[in-house]
Amino acid sequence: MRRPSAPRLRDRARALLHLDDPPAAIARALAVGVFISCTPLLGLQTILAILIATIFRLNRAATVTGVWLNLPWFAPFVYGGALKVGAALVPDPYGVREAWLTYVVEHPTRLSWSQILVLLHEVSVPLLVGSAVIGAAAALATYVVAFGIIWARRTRRSAS
Prior knowledge:
This protein is elongated. The protein has helices spanning 9-16, 23-37, 45-55, 60-68, 75-89, 96-106, 113-159. Helices cover 72% and strands 0% of the residues.
């Protein structure tokens, strides 16, 4: 016997098409959720989405759905890309960050907690900058695609 489960992502995305809000409002809320999903605030993203949606009067369901679009198996690519972009934008004139990352790759099991904290300090700013850039690009793409789909479906529905 199957247990009842939380609504799947596909069902949530389909439900967005039936919201009463204008297409631009739904697409905007979804895009904000996607932006939040690219932040390295794992575990807080859904709460942050609800808080931001409430403050800015966005559709909470659409914003949370946007957060959930960044599935766990995409995260290494999103954060790896964010770190690459951030490293390109945030200078490392003495090569400290590069030295730490090389050390981690070569000796992943030899890290102490104090070394992990130093590494996190070295990569946090580039990661935040990179995730903002990646998040903005993903949010823009999400807005364009979502608006187009919602607008087309509503136009088709009203024509029939």
